[in-house]
Design a protein that fits this description.
By secondary structure, this protein is an alpha/beta fold. It has a domain at 4-37 and 56-231: P-loop containing nucleotide triphosphate hydrolases (Rossmann fold), CATH 3.40.50. It contains 13 helices and 11 strands. It has helices at 56-63, 86-93, 113-123, 133-143, 160-172, 190-207, 218-224, 242-247, 252-259, 266-271, 302-306, 342-345, 365-371; strands at 4-19, 25-41, 45-49, 71-76, 79-80, 96-99, 178-182, 210-214, 227-232, 235-241, 327-328. The strands form 2 sheets. A 7-stranded mixed sheet has the order 6-7-8-3-9-10-11, with helices on both faces. Strands 2-1-4-5 form a 4-stranded antiparallel sheet. Helix 5 (160-172) packs parallel to helix 6 (190-207). The longest helix is centred in the middle third of the chain and has 18 residues, at 190-207. It is globular, with a radius of gyration of 24 Å. Mean pLDDT is 87; it is low at 347-380.
Length: 380
């Protein structure tokens, strides 16, 4: 595995709650992020998923220093960016750029596309001399699939997908090594989402980028990510490769999330187990003791209220080669198949005859064709 280009350790962001008008007194804190740890390796995409309010966007803002962490460290190539001087931080920011969630409000309506994409060059003039900036902006428009002649247009003259492409071009302007994408496709139509995700993948290959990709849509995250971290109430509760998280989840919250993903195949839908969580998400201003997921978890026991589970490989898998051998913050972590595989549903069976033509819903090989009324070709 490539070296870690970004290391996040014990990251916290607490917003104080105060009382009083003239003499304000802190009476508590909203723990938006409460102890996050992860590494981002050169050239990889780390996906971060979780329900609204779990702290994903706050983590993204801290990575680019738009929010100052309450405590913890963010190391870029060994340097803790939370402790850098303004001059040193300016140099680091050139290498860590952000693509924002809303393509409608993240672009200044009074500036032309050329001014928006070229604005980073005003802050870092060493990247592009003044006489060369217009050509560089047009090159960036071409890279993200927009006509370079659009350089003098305003944001309102573009669709949502085109605006997001402009935001991506702005993020690429300074030739960064890391791009933090905070739900970059959530405000777009499904067909446009696919175009933007494919564009991000192509740009990653072309420019050797590393992504922190934040989203709600689990299918999109799986499509683009090498590793996935699942957040709940300010902490990462499970992290691993995309195959480990989606096919071999061990944390109850991850399993509940995956069980909520729509399945287009009616046969698979009939075989899968739907996990319904009860109760509401606790307030980040009043986090439960011990495991923060215990108030909604069907596995909760007395130990869960007393001990905070560590984000580590479950003891039952430590000495095995199981794909479930990845970090999970649960006292009773165990693998659970939430979405059925092809073997479970009888689709795509093995042996002569394959799937019996139309999916083999009644069984494998020749039996699949018979179960579908003989619709499929006969096996050789």
């Amino acid at each position: 595995m490539a070296e870690a280009i970004l290391e996040v350790r014990d990251l916290h962001k607490h917003y104080p709650l105060t009382q009083g008008i003239l003499f304000k007194k802190q009476v508590g804190a909203v723990k938006a992020v409460d102890g996050v740890d992860f590494d981002l390796h050169q050239g990889e995409t780390l996906g971060i998923v979780g329900e609204s309010g779990c702290g994903k966007s706050t983590v993204a803002k801290m990575l680019v220093n738009l929010e100052r962490p309450t405590s913890g460290s963010i190391r870029y190539k060994g340097d803790d960016i939370t402790k850098l001087s303004p001059r040193a931080l300016k140099a680091v920011r050139r290498n860590i750029q952000m693509v924002f969630q809303d393509p409608y409000t993240s672009l200044n309506p009074r500036m032309t596309v050329g001014d928006i994409i070229g604005e980073p060059y005003e802050i870092h003039p060493e990247v592009a001399p003044k006489g060369d900036r217009r050509r560089k902006v047009q090159d960036l428009l071409d890279v993200v699939g927009l006509n370079p002649e659009y350089i003098n247009r305003y944001p309102h003259q573009f669709s949502g997908g085109q605006r997001q492409r402009i935001g991506i071009a702005r993020g690429l302007a300074l030739q960064p090594e890391i791009i933090v994408a905070d739900e970059p496709v959530s405000a777009l139509d499904v067909s446009v989402q696919a175009q933007v995700v494919n564009l991000l993948e192509n740009l990653q290959t072309e420019f050797s980028l590393s992504y922190v990709f934040i989203a709600h849509d689990l299918s999109i995250v799986r499509h683009i990510s090498d590793r996935v971290g699942v957040m709940y109430l300010g902490r990462i509760v499970e992290i691993g490769t995309d195959a480990q998280i989606y096919d071999h989840p061990t944390h109850p919250y991850t399993q509940a999330l995956l069980s909520a993903v729509p399945v287009p195949d009616p046969e698979a839908r009939a075989h899968r187990e739907r996990i319904i969580l009860t109760g509401d998400v606790p307030s980040p201003a009043n986090i439960p003791s011990g495991c923060r997921f215990r108030t909604r978890c069907w596995k909760a026991q007395e130990r869960c209220a007393l001990e905070v589970p560590l984000l580590a490989v479950p003891a039952v898998y430590r000495l095995t080669d199981s794909p479930a051998k990845h970090d999970s913050a649960c006292h009773f972590a165990e693998e659970k198949h939430v979405v059925p595989t092809e073997e479970d549903t009888g689709n795509g069976g093995e042996g002569p005859g394959g799937n019996g033509g139309n999916g083999g819903n009644g069984g494998n090989g020749a039996a699949g064709a018979e179960a579908n009324g003989g619709a499929g070709p006969k096996p050789l």
